[in-house]
Amino acid sequence: MIRLGTEMHPISLSQKSIRIHLTNVTGTGASQLLESLLPALVDSEQAHVTQIYLPDTGILSGFSLVSESVIIKQYRRFLPKAISRFLECTLFAYKFNDSTPILVLGDLPLRVQCRQTLFVQTPHLISPKSFAWHPRGWKYLITRFIFRLNMNRVSTFIVQTDIMKTSLIASYPSIKDRVRIISHPPPRWLLECKIPERHRKAEIRNLRLIYPAAEYPHKNHSLLSRIDIAESRLWPVEELLLTIREVVNPAPSISWVQCVGHLSPAEMIHAYGSVDGILFLSKKESLGFPLVEAMFFGLPVICPDLPYARTLCGDQGIYFDPDSVESLRAALMELKGLLSDNWKPDWSGQLRGIPKDWDGVASKILDLAINPLVVD
User: Scanning 23, 119, 209, 369, which has the fewest C-beta atoms within 10 Å of its C-beta?
Assistant: First the structure.
């Protein structure tokens, strides 16, 4: 069980109330974000959180709070999640009707009558545009249907990047005046840790890298399966750590690919301190935590030549075609050469645009949730 937001504040009579809905947040990335954001929302003096609706699985299902003024409810699912989620957002959404505004942190709007603010993170609401004949294709189709059905019930949509805002508006033009951008810092554990000094040299050996990502198809681990096993010995890689289970290892015959499973914050800090850079393969991101984490650690980043990565990493990233093994190999060779010349990325420009703490982020979100006409 995790315990978040335990600091207690007296409730002001002038303080506005808000409810937080996160029953759909079970994924690793979104859960990691909310582990940092939730304490700031609960502890903020800007609004009083009266109720929190939790998922019944995942990290956040164990949320606990030392406060008698906040009611915590766990939303139990007895049907397959896709069916249960559809019913929750449509026919059963009346359960969340209340005079108190609701902040939905789960991408899909509810069919409610009260004021609703929606935090949108998943890129699957905007892509792919064509239907794919597999289970995930049906899932994304239903997801976009729910979004269209209920989007007019949302006062404000919150996204994390300008690219996500542009893409969301292009997909749903009628919401263009209701979309706001609020970016976020790296997770709390990173902000509070002491960044270890780096003393490693790369000119006399191959690269040690990490790809911190869950085992979702859009994370593009499958690109590694296309590396020729015989030629893998010629790649400039000593070790590539994947934070996925060994059972889903995309390249089990390549000796330098190692699956280490999910890493705790302490393990992530140690890993970041021992690698030469981050390899990021993902084809779709709203805002990748690992890229921001790499910047705070001063690590080089090899990432896909896609808009989300270009926006985040600018001219300091090393880019490759996310569908080309040869392009990936060339990017790795480029990084090894740069490190041999004692090159270090300069992330100062990118870090200036990243919020310094989660309290400020929570304040902006609550401002929009209780005052929906606030502008950027």
Answer: 209
Residue with tokens 């993902």: 282
CA distance 140 to 118: 18
Name the percent of the chain lying above pLDDT 70: 88
* pLDDT for 87: 94
Count of CB atoms situated within 10 Å of the CB of 82: 13
Which helix (H) or strand (E) segment holds residue 319: the answer is: strand 318-320
pLDDT at 15: 64
DSSP code at position 172: S
Cα 111-109-20 angle, rounded to 5 deg? 100
Nearest to 156 by CA among 111, 99, 115: 115
pLDDT, tens digit (0-9, with 9 covering 90-100), for 65-84: 767 788 899 999 888 888 89
- Please choose, from the candidates 249, 223, 191, the residue with its C-alpha nearest in 3D space to the C-alpha of residue 302: 223
Token output for 222 = 């499958």
What would the pLDDT profile of 148-207 be if each residue is shown by its tens digit? 999 999 999 999 888 889 989 999 999 999 999 998 888 888 888 877 666 555 455 899
* pLDDT over threshold 60, residue 9: no
Per-residue b or e along 232-241, where b marks 16 or more CB atoms closer than 10 Å to that residue's CB: beebbbebbb
Cα–Cα distance, 310 to 251 (Å, whole number)? 27
CA distance 106 to 24: 5
Is 184:33 a contact under the CB 8 Å cutoff?
yes
Place of tokens 């010349």: 341
Question: Is the distance from CB of 3 to CB of 70 less than 8 angstroms?
Answer: no
State mean pLDDT over 272-299.
89
pLDDT at residue number 128: 57
Is the pLDDT assigned to residue 1 strictly greater than 50? Answer: no
Distance CA 83, CA 56 (A): 15
Q: Cα–Cα distances in Å, from 115 out to 36, 102, 157, 249, 297?
A: 25, 6, 12, 45, 40
55 upstream amide cis, omega within 30 of 0 = no
